[in-house]
Model the fold of this input.
Amino acid sequence: MKLPLSHRCFLFGFLVLGLFSRLPAQQTRSTPVPPPAVRLEKLGTVNVYGGETPEGLTAAQKVRWDSFVKVWDTLNQNYFDRTFNGLDWNKIKSEYRPRIVAAQSDGEVNRVLDEMIQRLGRSHFAIIPNDVFRTVEAAKREAKKRGRQLSAQTKPADVLTEGKETDTDDVDFFDEDAEFGIGVELRMLGGQFVVTYVDPKSAAQLAGIKRGYIVDKINGVSVSDMVRRITFSYPNVNHLNRYLPIQIVSWFLDGEKDSKVTVTCLDENDQAKDFRMERMRLAGSAVSIGNNYPPQFLDFRTRSIDADTGYIKFNLFTLDVVEKFCSALTEFKDKKALVLDLRGNLGGILGVLSGVAGMLTDHTVNLGTSIYRRGSEPLDVKARAKHFSGRLVMLVDNQSVSAAEMFASGMRENDRVLIVGTTTAGEALPAISIELPTGAVFMYPIANFKSKNGKSIEGAGVEPDYKVTLDRQTLLKDVDAPLDKALSLIHENTAFPQPKVANTGMIGLSVDGPPPPPKPTPKPIIAGKGDGPPPPLKLSAISGGGLSAYPPKNVSEINDVRSLQIIDTFLKAVNISEIKNIRSYAAIGTGHVGARGSSSAVSFAGYRQFPDKFAFTIDLGFAGELREVHNGPVGFLESDIGLQKDLPPPPNAASADLFGPITTLSDLNNFKSLKFLGDFERDGRKCHVIEGKYGSFPVALLFDIETKMLVSFGTLGAPVSFGDYRKVGAVMLPFHIALERNYDIDMTDIKINISVDESHFKKKENCFDKPL
Done:
């Protein structure tokens, strides 16, 4: 039993991340020289060798050891490169084992783990220390404290209750997601940190800092000295010069609200000038890119360059970008061309590419393929109702990372854009993350990525069609050379590729062959008919009923009385006759979905309307909602990030039921055999175990001996588990449902035989569903 590929990709929130610009520069490193192997048999009272887990560990050592094992095991099971870059992964474990045991702090363990994973020589490996998250939480607490102080200043004293804190979460004049800085971008040109962009109305612009100025000192400290210290602290950082400009801005130029900073710049005459500035709120806001990651700062800008050309720039691919990009296209609906500025775009959520790219094409396109340890998955993008068909130019540089690289490469290979700038970072691997026992987060790549034409972006980057570099002298003239080149290409209008017309089979359009044959008429959904494996077959098994349309056979044909007794006892316990009378329900809950070692917290809602309507919604938060809907013969999958896919009807009504296994057991017509195997222990509980065949499919059933309830129903793939049965009206229903390695949901409320809003079974209209 497995989820469709589309579910696995978008439910589990696969991420494509470049570098967390607000985190220590330990994310991407070159392959370090391994330290000499030290064979230690004993560290203090701890026996380092002699077993899987060393004996004699203290509580703190055990947590660090468990973190080490979790990192090693996760990669051993899920890392896409089975060769481990030519390393003996078991030997690596033995090599690092004594160093983990000897570590004196979580920070030291993080450094050792970081060194170990960087030996694999790929991007998108990172150990994000837990103190990063503590810092974020402390900042939020300080933000709320400041909000309360500001609120208190606006209220009479007698309004405030002594000894109690006033809730000011809704105070409009303070935003805890705001960030403060001077508003500049830097690049390293000629070994110096050069200002390449100044935000309008920013502290830097108001103070007089201009493009082309060199940042020489910050608060009197030489930037060159800072770089030497950083290099000393992080000697293995790959492409240090590329990432340092981002870090300099993040670590030293940005800061707290109301704080001040003095920046010494070399002007156009190389004369040193001091600029004393109070940090101002930056344009943009903090956004989430995943449950396991600290907030990132999204900067999304648009402007009209001239009557025919619009300009869009954003630094991350996040859920918020889909709506903002859609609104920008509405703003530029009369433009003939767009410049998409991806310089400094550090990647983000892979699924967002579907939403953005779908608004730039009039037919389905393929952006590339993720190649996993087992299997592969194409990144196909469906055209949205709202899409821009004019000329496109993308600007990229060596700080265009990951999702930005996939986006640029994919759109070019579909003959949609021209690319101007310099070669991108060459760090393009789909990645996810897990939390470690120490509280740190481990990010790791789960797939290689090949472009539509089979090119690998990892390690190579995307070469521009027109190479245009920044130089200081041009910047001092307030000229953006790559942007000027983009505008000249748009105005000349001679170099743009002609997009290929999709094979639609429509009159008046060129096609590669005859139109495809008509789709067969789907079979009607008939509950209980055994023309497929038993329910639930997928996570879309979310809604109830499942009544049999056939009279039961004589159950004596199944020659296992013990099995029949166990099943009959269970059916009586849940009051199956009343379950058969369920015509609708709504179920809500929370839980986790996961894949390849990672999991994400979700909110869940499922709806059923007899006989053939069912829907479920899974809300990932950072990636928005994913909805699967079946309304008679019509089925579809859709998401807030732009995913949309038509789905066939399920083989029977019960296969779309959250409680499908229960209703299946009420009708033994399709079971060819049932055999009681005995009593076994499962998760500390003794269970009756029955095996059988449902049609031609093997089935395993487990019933808790104490409660008499069904606790596991296994068919193809992972088994579905049930627990926490509670009374709902006259019936007993499971409030805990889990599919091994895929999802784990705890219901908070189930209501049966209620009126279900029809909107749950219809498509949700997003901005991109409305034509320009």
Remarks:
- The chain has a mean pLDDT of 80.
- The longest strand covers residues 584-595.
